[in-house]
Amino acid sequence: xxxxxxxxxxxxxxxxxxxxxxxxxxxxxxxxxxxxxxxxxxxxxxxxxxxxxxxxxxxxxxxxxxxxxxxxxxxxxxxxxxxxxxxxxxxxxxxxxxxxxxxxxxxxxxxxxxxxxxxxxxxxxxxxxxxxxxxxxxxxxxxxxxxxxxxxxxxxxxxxxxxxxxxxxxxxxxxxxxxxxxxxxxxxxxxxxxxxxxxxxxxxxxxxxxxxxxxxxxxxxxxxxxxxxxxxxxxxxxxxxxxxxxxxxxxxxxxxxxxxxxxxxxxxxxxxxxxxxxxxxxxxxxxxxxxxxxxxxxxxxxxxxxxxxxxxxxxxxxxxxxxxxxxxxxxxxxxxxxxxxxxxxxxxxxxxxxxxxxxxxxxxxxxxxxx
Length: 371
Hints:
By secondary structure, the protein is of the alpha/beta class. The chain has two domains: 201 residues, Quinone Oxidoreductase, Chain A, domain 1; 143 residues, 3-Layer(aba) Sandwich (Rossmann fold). Helix content is 28%, strand content 25%. Strands 3, 4, 5, 7, 8, 15 and 16 form a seven-stranded mixed sheet that branches. A six-stranded parallel sheet has the order 11-10-9-12-13-14, with helices on both faces. Strands 1-2-6 form a three-stranded antiparallel sheet, with no helix packed on it. β1 and β2 form a beta hairpin. α5 runs parallel beside α6. The longest helix has 13 residues. The radius of gyration is 20 Å and the shape is globular. The model has no long low-confidence stretch (mean pLDDT 97).
């Protein structure tokens, strides 16, 4: 049985969002109907809204949802009606990567998270009761909606006392930055770490570096105010990204030929090249920023070879959300992940201000309150 709800819709890929009524399709056996209480705004949402990342007109985006289960399909075993849940990315659960505990590299990741439809090709959201399909099932959730149908792989049960507005961003941005450091790079205690771009993802990487015990954590950003906040969260040094000698400054701080580990949170090819150049011998770098298809970066092959550097991609922090999100909540409880310093909550009616503040950098992590 279909039902109506209110959602933020992108009519055209020009960055404009409008709040309007949409229809939800009937729940499938492998889905959960969730009442959204909060949803984080991620730069990926904004990139999709202008076509920089895969999308289509009449889209319902949102992939950092948090809410309460209203109904669970008969093939869902992990949650029940009334459970609080955080929402993350969708994965098939059956391919080799999913089976080995690395669902962020699911063989069908792009289709399931950017395809705009359910895996079987049907649409979870419609423009009217018998209307045209909406681009939906974004990251298995499309959580810019007061109610939404979510694939079971995207759902993580959390305790009843969980602050959904505070922890909504764990579903993508925070787990991505923290996971890049803790999982993909496996930063060692006593090592050095550089983080390029300290928005919410980069701040999470900084906090994870502190959790792991990195001796020097170097934040690189264009905004001095963000560098100051990064230092509050664990960075030992800050470097202005527009300086012409960023690599030299990092080498001077590390007092060697480069940094042990580095995370690029920008997806900007020029910054990625600087990230790689800043690595020392046997240094390892990861990119988590998504620039869209067709972007390339050049590498000095001889330098890369002779110093044994590594550069890897990192999707969703290589995390297993069902385990990693509860771990991050524990880190917050222990005072090691102070998300309060990053998060600004807006009522959904003020979505335009939230988006503007996200674009300008005024809000590091904007979260929409739906109820």
